[in-house]
Amino acid sequence: MKKYFAALTTTALISVAPFALAGPSTELTVSGVITPVACTPTLSVGDIDLGSISYNQLEQEQNTLVGSHDVSLSMNCDGSTGFAIIAIDNKAGSGIGDGFGLGLNDGNPVGFFTPLIQRVTADTAVVDPIESNDNGVTWARTDSAKPGIWLSAATPSSTTPIDAQIVTVDFKVNTYILRADELTLVGDLDLDGSATFEVMYL
């Protein structure tokens, strides 16, 4: 920076010196690209297989928990950065409440899965999960990932998203089938849930 200003000063002095004559010139162009920090999200388990579930296993008057699985979402970045993780329900329209859908049966939802947050670490420090339902304007603490809601992390005394380079979110993914008396089953019914986790830079 010091050399840069010295060169500018010299140029200014030459340009205002008396009797200076204009001569041939050449141009120096400086170009480049500022690249944002890149983050890569990965899941410890990308496919949860519940196997075959008998209709007789389903509760008649309440939702049936048919699976509970540990899944970790890791985010590794080139450098420390502010971030939000957005969970997208690829079966939107078949979910119930804040749950991710498992598809439709005769046009009606059959169940849902919920990623409950067990623990969050940012650069090895334990931090609190926070969420925003207004695209990052305001944040509040949370205990689960929800479709379309921004998820980030904060220190225990704050709800402001922190910068981090390596983040791990440990989930307990609970899967439920709706109460049997609300289902119309004709033959086998495939459960087809899917969610995509995207990283947004803050």
From TrEMBL:
Keyword Mitochondrion in record: no
Any Gene Ontology biological process: cell adhesion
Q: GO terms for CC?
A: pilus
Question: Does the record's keyword annotation contain Signal?
Answer: yes
Tell me which domain of life the UniProt entry assigns to the organism this sequence originates from: Bacteria
* Keyword set, alphabetical order: Signal
Where would one find the signal peptide in this protein? 1-22
| InterPro entries cross-referenced by the UniProt entry | Adhesion_dom_fimbrial_sf (IPR036937), DUF1120 (IPR010546)
Protein's recorded name: DUF1120 domain-containing protein
Q: Which organism is it from?
A: Pseudomonas jessenii
